[in-house]
Design a protein that fits this description.
CATH superfamily: Ribonuclease H-like superfamily/Ribonuclease H
Structural class: alpha/beta
Helix content: 25-40%
Strand content: 15-25%
CATH class: Alpha Beta
Low-confidence stretches: none
CATH architecture: 2-Layer Sandwich
Radius of gyration: 18 Å
Largest sheet: 6 strands, mixed
Length: 218
């Protein structure tokens, strides 16, 4: 399976492909960025350019599925990023591509699991840009330098590939890591208070048309 991961940005929109059947450097057969000048382009021109660049790369690479990181799901929300979010979604729907969306915290949490570092004074260390590059490098043979936008996009693709493999029954729940089980399949059961006895399906697998979209079927 070939998954295209996207790390949208107003000036450096990162993208990367993961091939789940490959190893080493072949795990990422292509990666890059769509770059714009914030001072020389107005917001309409920038978003229009990003939308067309995304459609072009999808047509060129023809990925099986897509994964997207977007800060519209947490405190990093901004009007500019939400505008880019809409243009990106339009491109994916026009290209009839199934897509799953992740918050930056989820992508960093999943990437953290692939870097073996001890806790400091019982506290987890914070994932920084260099750490995301290290995680991407470790997963692709351990050599070379990674731009942080492309590294983020690759790690989005890696997380998304696990989700889509579960969706397609190529993976079973027992094959998932503890974090993946939480992200994909979490069910919150309330035992106290006014919500006692209720269940809330928080996992992405239960949230079609909210956190993942089957646009290939439309």
């Amino acid at each position: 399976m070939r998954i295209l991961g996207l790390d949208p940005s107003l000036t450096n929109f990162g993208w990367a492909v993961i091939d789940t059947e490959a190893t080493g450097r072949d795990r990422c057969p292509a990666r890059g960025r769509f770059q714009t000048s914030k001072s020389k382009m107005d917001f309409v021109e920038r978003n229009t350019y990003m939308r067309q660049a995304l459609r072009d790369i999808i047509q060129e690479l023809d990925p099986d599925r897509i994964g997207v990181e977007f800060p519209v799901f947490n405190s990093d929300y901004s009007e500019g990023m939400y505008g880019l979010f809409l243009y990106t979604c339009e491109a994916l729907k026009l290209e009839k591509r199934d897509a799953v969306f992740w918050s930056p915290i989820q992508v960093k949490g999943h990437a953290r699991d692939s870097i073996n570092r001890p806790q400091i004074d019982g506290k987890r260390w914070k994932m920084m840009k260099a750490d995301m590059g290290e995680a991407a490098r470790n997963d692709t043979g351990g050599k070379g330098q990674w731009n942080h936008n492309e590294a983020d996009a690759y790690l989005v693709a890696r997380l998304s590939s696990r989700f889509w493999q579960l969706y397609d029954d190529e993976l079973q729940e027992v094959d998932l890591t503890e974090r993946e089980q939480k992200y994909f399949l979490e069910v919150k059961r309330y035992v106290r208070g006014k919500k006692a006895g209720r269940e809330v399906k928080r996992g992405v697998a239960y949230r079609e048309n909210e956190r993942f979209f089957l646009w290939s079927e439309n």
